[in-house]
Write the structure tokens for this entry.
Amino acid sequence: MSNHLNDITLKIWRQAGPNERGRFETYLIDQISDEASFLEMLDILNERLITEGREPVTFDHDCREGICGTCSLMINGQAHGPQKSTATCQLHMRKFQSGDQIVIEPWRASAFPIIKDLMVNRSAFDRIIEAGGFITAPTGGAPDANLIPIPKPVSDAAMDSAECIGCGACVAACPNGAANLFTAAKISHLNLLPQGQAERYSRVEAMVETMDDYFGSCTNHGECEAACPKSISIDVIALMNKDYRKAKFKNRKTSARAD
Amino acid sequence: MTTDSRLNSKAPQGAIEDKWNNYKADVKLVNPNNKRKFKVIVVGTGLAGASAAATLAELGYQVDAFTFHDSPRRAHSIAAQGGINAAKNYRGDGDSVHRLFYDTVKGGDFRSRESNVHRLAEVSVNIIDQMVAQGVPFAREYGGLLDNRSFGGAQVSRTFYARGQTGQQLLLGAYQQLARQIGLGGVRLFNRTELVDVVVIDGRASGIVVRDLMTGEISSHSAHAVVLATGGYGNVFFLSTNAMACNVTATWRAHRKGAFFANPCYTQIHPTCIPQSDESQSKLTLMSESLRNDGRVWVPKKQNETRPIDQIPEEDRDYYLERLYPSFGNLAPRDISSRAAKRAVDDGRGVGPLKNGVYLDFSDSINRLGKDVVAERYGNLFEMYERIAGENPYEVPMRIYPASHYTMGGLWVDYELMTTIPGLYAAGEANFSDHGANRLGASALMQGLADGYFVLPYTIGNYLAPMLNQGTPDTNHPEFKKAEEDARNRFQGYLNIKGSRSPDWFHRKFGKIIWDYCGMERTAEGLQKALSDLEPLYEEFKTDLRVTGDGESMNQTLEKAGRVDDFIQLGMLMCRDALERNESCGGHFRAEYQTDDGEAQRDDDNFCHVAAWEWTGDPMKAIRNVEDLNYETVHLATRSYK
Ligand SMILES: Cc1cc2nc3c(=O)[nH]c(=O)nc-3n(C[C@H](O)[C@H](O)[C@H](O)COP(=O)(O)OP(=O)(O)OC[C@H]3O[C@@H](n4cnc5c(N)ncnc54)[C@H](O)[C@@H]3O)c2cc1C
Ligand code: FES
């Protein structure tokens, strides 16, 4: 049977809109089942706020299964909270104790402006994908799926990178607000696969340069890997950097040839 | 019964294998240079919407895509775990288009339209090719070829998968293709924007009215055709495995504008979800059906068993699926497995602290295959289970129980995926088309992508071609202005009630009514009770709702109010549909209609049809219209998985 947690102090960032000033507000909560998820604890708080005639805390969430990447909370200074490889929505109250103080903030990064309270705008990620995070394969003309065998280790490595849920924890955790882990994960996914080779170098160039338009630069702190709910390895950044260097060289050569 | 003239399926002539080719040979085309003169609105950017929007833009149409999510990559499709079916027969185990077609019709308990299902099976093979070309990292064997697994209701291995995250990988594939078109300017994306009404002018779908979730602003968008790919309504039960934001508003608002809503009572209760652990829970979590490949389902033979698991000897365990359905065993279809679990729990043989689950036990597989192989197949699902339930499934069997998962019902569409409103299409889970009364596992992803990639891009041209050189409708037309005004009043109205209960309070309350009376087992008496409870509850909603905050900034409570309003109305229609269908079929199980051994008893003489409901201003007064289902290829048979 479940136990209850009591006397929990929540310090939550409240901000009415993108251009408003924010502040912390403190709420005391009791009688939270340790089976409850962290977000269910916020649901309970929000129901209470509505009953009291106050505005509930705005936060982003959807699947609550750790896969959509919508949830995005800084919990006690850690992106997605204390449990390793776990998105906020998969964190459960059994990881906390009665009497705890929990500080909840939005992702803090200049590329992710706050919309309201704990909700931020992560559209800059979409811009990076639009710049080149795809394989050009218009519907209809694809050859048989088994025509090109892909060695299992290659396909597994591509999948390891493709697991990225686009939540932005890497950016939030990075002291520079860099998006290198996110960008490199996509590049590594596509650049490892045979299908991704044709656009390998144009992809990396376009994506990295778009990334640089929005985000800070990477100085190898490694905080991103520690915060990633999918444990994506920082090695992907090395691959991206290598391909980017080659791209600068190759893309110059190809355009010279075209002249 | 005879088919209502407005429900002409437009299934093409010819033998079942030839229909789709015949259709494509005769369809009107829009020449490549003219395509850019047409604008198409696609609402929803899940698998169905993203694939449709990207493909239409590649063909040259101007596409405006809408999603209430912050990014297309977040759609509920992302959560699909298990896999996607395709009749590739890469295993050489006897699969074929015909077999997939037959399994789907049978799985749907002979309540789907043959012509649509056959086309789905035909294009299934193209989907896998397309997704591999886009870089979807499906699981592979050591030789580098694609791997497959089995899913419920099939005796072949035809399910392609990417670890336990197939939906994620497929959605990211479709999203990336869409992102490319956004980058190229072929698609304009409106994110965090919710459809709140559909506009019909002179009998044609002419556009939509939307609400910007960040500013509350209401505005109109017009187009030559509108596609709704807005997902299913499984959240009508409040607790479900659907993502929190999934809702029925888009299809319900279209219904209110004249699109018939088909078979709302066909809902799927998935057998393997993590049981509810306490009253304040907001969401249930699915454990993929693929786990039933290697997990064995059991409960103690004795009621109110008190011994710990390891002290319950083999002879005191009831592997009830293996016992009742020897040829399919743990892979019996979902509706059947769910009811069997419910019966075990109702019989006092449930397990876990609240006695509300059954075991899914991997010990035999771990002994036979080794922990590593099991971890390779299901590692991330096991981790997810442990995070939520706090128990390690390598050591203790999982506990599972059925939960709302998918909705077969949806907007009625013809062979071209057009609703009863000309120019309004529905794709993916939003339509009712291919799964009859029960969907087989791994077939929703297949259908969403089939609709978006390979069906709509053909059929929509047939509608558009004759409209060449007609501009898009004027958004100053009185119908647009009226719809905007109605939407503004509706949302302001929720704020003005200033009652005492939150939208979630209402959702929880009516969701429980629907679950109790229109869930896994239904009776006429229970459904009447539900209807008599729902009407006053809806009145209470209209007079006692409390939404705090304002309508000019992000307000999730206000969003929720609109969605709950539509859900309650849909709930009424579901109960009416369930009440009128005096038979049991697939996910619709009426206790009065069962065989001696407790299986669903269909009534083909009176109910071999689609019920398509017509809005009249009140869900309690909606009119039931009928499309007869004519089985030309498959023989109607009693569904048996014994
Ligand atoms: C946990 C889980 C696991 C599953 N696993 C599998 C599986 O293994 N295999 C399988 O085949 N199927 C599976 N399914 C089912 C399958 O995932 C869904 O049926 C399918 O993904 C639905 O896709 P869709 O494109 O129709 O809708 P969705 O993915 O739900 O997308 C709906 C889109 O519409 C938008 N939208 C909705 N309403 C509005 C509105 N009013 N205004 C603007 N935008 C709107 C949303 O923003 C979203 O973009 C699973 C389902 C669940 C719940
Ligand atoms: S809500 Fe989807 S990842 Fe957390």
User: Anything to note?
Assistant: Chain A has two domains: 4-116, 122-258. Helices of chain A lie at 38-51, 123-132, 152-162, 169-173, 180-192, 200-214, 223-227, 235-258. Chain A touches chain B through 78 residues (CB under 8 Å).
